[in-house]
Input
Amino acid sequence: MSNILENCNLCPRRCGVNRAAGQKGFCGALSLLRTARIALHFWEEPCISGESGSGTVFFSHCTMKCVFCQNYEISTCSKGSDITIEELAEGFLSLQEQGANNINLVTPTHFVPQIIEALNIAKNKGLALPVLYNTGGYENVETLKMLEGYIDIYMPDFKYYNDKYAIKYSNAPDYFKTASEALREMVRQTGRAVINDKGIMTGGTLVRHLMLPGLMLDSKRVMDYLYDNYGDDIYISLMCQYTPLPHVRSCPELDRRVDMDKYNALVDYCARRGMEKVFIQSEESAAESFIPSFNGRF
Output
């Protein structure tokens, strides 16, 4: 692990910094694990949370730092608490004891080596839940290959088709190419998406797309790309929950909620294309009450 963090290229930023020596790259993370919340989470897609909840671990810091991030206080402001690898493993086991449907790793990229160590410890102590990798989609294929055999479900965002939006809102050059290559690797690892007879996803890939104000055409292109390339092998979550928080005011075009008529038109577009494995949301999901409290506690 230390060798990787001494020249960190885990994400597409490829900063090359020595995190073990206290250097910080784009994400802001050092070698110590930092988490903002380890708890059951009931607001994911129905096939992820179910009735028992998803065992989420929200990691502090982020490799993207989107201007509209709803988890801004942990992704950019780095709110959270430092924990050991052993404590993370105990967190996994605690979530299993609480009845979680899965272990849900939220923004985990910059801590992949430590997560692998924690999973090894937890599995040796009886962890048997599916492990879910919940990411913004901006991933290195090499890093994803490190996770083969550890991850049962990938849940990446596919945020943009046109890179001009990726650069403006996420400072993420080559987002489309990078996210496309990452998604191909995720699907290769997990195969066709599987939901069991209880309605819970146990394997495969679920791709999220958050519709942003004014980007209807870009959203259509994302939907076309996903369906043309993966058909019914993946599930898609088409989200309208975008919530403009104070830090987005630097981009006034995003300082409003999604027009629900446009969102419903996008849903209709997907239906006309014959897309059936798509989760959709109601307007009520666009509320700050759906943003969890990041208190760092189990």
Notes: Strands lie at 33-41, 54-59, 81-83, 103-106, 131-135, 153-156, 194-195, 201-210, 235-239, 278-280.
